[in-house]
Write a structure and sequence with these properties.
By secondary structure, the protein is mostly helical. The chain folds into three domains: 229 residues, Clc chloride channel (Orthogonal Bundle); 225 residues, Clc chloride channel, CATH 1.10.3080; 155 residues, CBS-domain (Roll). Helices cover 54% and strands 6% of the residues. It has a four-stranded mixed sheet. Strands 4-7-8 form a three-stranded mixed sheet. Helix 27 links the parallel strand 10 and strand 11. The N and C termini lie close together (11 Å). This is Chloride channel protein.
Length: 774
């Protein structure tokens, strides 16, 4: 990600404040309509939520009043009302289509590392064998049309030379995919790297990062996502799919002036797009809506909830129509269990929750330490080399172990699966009772065979490998999601615990804890359920999700009766992880990158006052202000040139310091520029005034410039004795950029969002400069 400076100031960081521009029509007296770029924001600045809301209210009021004038205006008002639903429909269609294409491409390119289909090289292994008439059920993974690289190049399928060639081809393909991905990101779209969720959260809180949701980012992220997932790196596509869906949302919102000209309304669309992204990532429309509400959105009105639901529904329907996995399901690891869970099993479920919380804490701390090292040392200067090295290490270690060689989604699918009569996995290599005559769906617990013990060792090694390699993979300059690796870690731990409990119950069914519910010959324990609970616990430990996580997991499995185990594990993992630190991985990355994000979940309990935080402080130069009717155009232009503040309080005079309003830097520049071009008589020594009536001037004075209409007459103010706890709450809930501090109507200073973030960092014994955008 490229590093950009967030222009900040001791005086004013953000934009005009709370009070909206009641006169949001014409912004200059000498113009009939607003001049271009008014109301827009510069890159790496924060929007003013209240101002945006007020502008939308004015726009809506104008449309409603005009709709009564003619049939055409009435039709236009209907089109305006329906534009939101049209945007949601388009987002759902495009997000679902892209997710389907990504799934199909990943399936083919992952298999390409191991072999190729002779009848059609664009077929994956499974598709190739579907079309073959010579495939039998017992050998359904082997068919003459699919050839491994050793069979194709050496005409050998077994032996040392065949294994070495397959090994080398696996590594070479992985390196090629990873190199292509990092090169595309570096050259065409630097913003396409990472998960995207920390930045989406920051953007939804009101920050402007131009280009982050652009068309190039959408295209490159979609292509490189296929490449990095196929390369076998320990990352997933679920998080980046949220970024992809938000890029779709940004693209379609730019087609409708209702959203393109209002940053607040645009963010409502992006919240719904995030829901659609999770919907297609997990096949969980309701979970997607709750994820957007719980995890990423800053402002989520009821209207956005319905539209998010509609977008998620359309996206899921589109993906279901494409049917990328050929099983009529939206995800690869859909499972159904047939055995109920028992109260005694809550203890191992809670233990998995504890493991998930500990893993979440370990991962967050180690990953942030590594990412900080990457930012502050020479390591960050070689992103391509870093990706190549990590890919090579991953491929070399992953290939010998069948559980790390396969794609992570397939691994989770295998770990979630219940062992039916037709399963050929090593995890289902139990010793069967020859006299068993039971329905297929109700196979009793059996002693573990050699294959299960082998699988346990391989899973233990795979677990250690995944834990370590994911720490170094997440945060590299390629698209990288965290959902799937976290779920894989939990699923491996859960499956091993599940097999352990199952064997304990089989061999010691007379113990008091098993006696009531696990009789000999019964199907008591489902190891796949433990894998699912472990996956939920680890994902919850890393992201600190709770409600949306449980809903996503039960939508994945289709089993309502397993909500209690999932809830127990999710809550336990959050409690354990929160005991070591309140930050999830996304909040930690937001702070690492210095984004100006005021988290609603953070509590501020310190007893400081507004006067302790406001600028200017003692020893600092006085606050830069404009007077209402005594400054010339040249004075204002000099002030703008010599400072980088984003706005200036307007006072009656420098002596009285009585507050009149607040003028935004950008609009001052545009107003003066347009006045010089369009209004005669405006020169450098023209007086600028913000009052209704012009000041009394000598007869030979140049024409004055009236700028009252760019003045915010109701800036948000607090007194100097307002507790900072209240100020922080105001900034969070109203989305302010700054508020002015007064005493008896006299201006004392200003508090910006940046000042609030600095103060909160200082109170938490952190470096106040480290939290700024760099």
């Amino acid at each position: 990600m490229r590093h950009c400076r967030w222009t900040s100031l001791p005086g004013v960081t953000s934009t005009v404040s709370a009070g909206a521009m009641s006169a949001s029509g014409n912004l200059m007296d000498f113009l009939d309509e607003p001049f271009p770029d008014v109301g827009t924001y510069e890159d790496f600045h924060t929007i003013d939520w209240l101002r945006e809301k007020s502008r939308d209210t004015d726009r809506h009021r104008k449309i409603t009043s005009k709709s009564k004038e003619s049939i055409w205006e009435f039709i236009k008002s209907l089109l305006d009302a329906w534009s939101g639903w049209v945007v949601m429909l388009l987002i759902g269609l495009l997000a679902g289509t892209l997710a389907g294409v990504i799934d199909l491409a990943v399936d083919w390119m992952t298999d390409l590392k191991e072999g190729v289909c002779l009848s059609a090289f664009w077929y994956s292994h499974e598709q190739c064998c579907w079309t073959s008439n010579e495939t039998t059920f017992e050998d359904r993974d082997k068919c003459p049309l699919w050839q491994k690289w050793s069979e194709l190049l050496l005409s050998q399928s077994e032996g040392a030379s065949a294994y070495i060639l397959n090994y080398l081809m696996y590594i070479l393909w992985a390196l090629l995919f990873a190199f292509l991905a990092v090169s595309l990101v570096r050259v065409f779209a630097p913003y396409a790297c990472g998960s995207g969720i920390p930045e989406i959260k920051t953007i939804l809180s009101g920050f402007i990062i131009r280009g982050y949701l652009g068309k190039w980012t959408l295209l490159i992220k979609t292509v490189t996502l296929v490449l990095v997932v196929s390369s076998g790196l320990s990352l997933g596509k679920e998080g980046p799919l949220v970024h992809v869906a938000c890029c779709c949302g940004n693209f379609f919102s730019s087609l409708f002036s209702k959203y393109s000209k209002n940053e607040g309304k645009r963010r409502e669309v992006l919240s719904a797009a995030a829901a659609a992204g999770v919907s297609v990532a997990f096949g969980a429309p309701i979970g997607g809506v709750l994820f957007s509400l719980e995890e990423v959105s800053y402002y989520f009105p009821l209207k956005t909830l319905w539209r998010s639901f509609f977008a998620a529904l359309v996206a899921a329907f589109t993906l279901r129509s494409i049917n990328p996995f050929g099983n009529s399901r939206l995800v690869l690891f859909y499972v159904e269990y047939h055995t109920p869970w028992y109260m005694a099993e809550l203890f191992p479920f809670i233990l998995l929750g504890v493991f998930g919380g500990l893993w979440g804490t370990l991962f967050t701390r180690c990953n942030i330490a590594w990412c900080r090292r990457r930012k502050t040392t020479r390591l960050g200067k070689y992103p391509v080399l870093e990706v190549i090295v990590v890919t090579a290490i991953t491929a070399i270690i992953a290939y010998p172990n069948p559980y790390t060689r396969q794609s992570t989604s397939e691994l989770i699918s295998e770990l979630f699966n219940d062992c039916g009569a037709l399963e050929s996995s090593q995890l289902c290599d139990y010793i069967n009772d020859p006299n068993m005559t039971r329905p297929v769906d109700d196979i009793p617990d059996r002693p573990a065979g050699v294959g299960v013990y082998t699988a346990m060792w391989q899973l233990a090694l795979a677990l250690i490998f995944k834990i370590v390699i994911t720490i170094f993979t997440f945060g590299m300059k390629i698209p990288s999601g965290l959902f799937i690796p976290s779920m894989a870690v939990g699923a491996m731990a859960g499956r091993m615990v599940g097999i352990g409990v199952e064997q304990l119950a089989y061999h010691h069914h007379d113990w008091i804890i098993f006696r009531n519910w696990c009789r000999p010959g019964a199907d008591c324990v489902t190891p796949g359920l433990y894998a699912m609970v472990g996956a939920a616990a680890c994902l919850g430990g890393v992201t600190r999700m709770t409600v949306s996580l449980v809903v996503i997991m039960f939508e994945l499995t289709g089993g309502l009766e397993y909500i209690v185990p999932l809830m127990a594990a999710a809550v336990t993992s959050k409690w354990v992880a929160d005991a070591f630190g309140k930050e999830g991985i996304y909040e930690a990355h937001i702070h690492l990158n210095g984004y100006p994000f005021l988290d609603v979940k953070d509590e501020f309990t310190h007893r400081t006052l507004a006067t302790d935080v406001m600028r200017p402080r003692r020893g600092e130069p006085p606050l830069s202000v404009l007077t209402q009717d005594s400054m010339t155009v040249e004075d204002v232009e000099t002030l703008i040139k010599e400072t980088d503040y984003n706005g200036f309080p307007v006072v009656v005079s420098r002596d009285s310091e009585r507050l009149i309003g607040f003028a935004q830097r950008r609009e001052l520049i545009l107003a003066i520029k347009n006045a010089r071009q369009r209004q005669e008589g405006i020169v450098s020594n023209s007086i600028m005034y913000f009052t209704e009536e012009p000041p009394e001037l000598p007869a030979n004075s140049p024409h004055p410039l009236k700028l009252r209409r760019i003045l915010n007459l109701s800036p948000f103010t607090v007194t100097d004795h307002t507790p900072m706890e209240t100020v922080v709450d105001i900034f969070r809930k109203l989305g302010l950029r700054q508020c002015l501090v007064t005493r008896s109507g006299r201006l004392l200073g200003i508090i910006t969002k940046k000042d609030v973030l600095r103060h909160m960092a200082q109170m938490a014994n952190q470096d106040p400069e480290s939290i700024m955008f760099n």
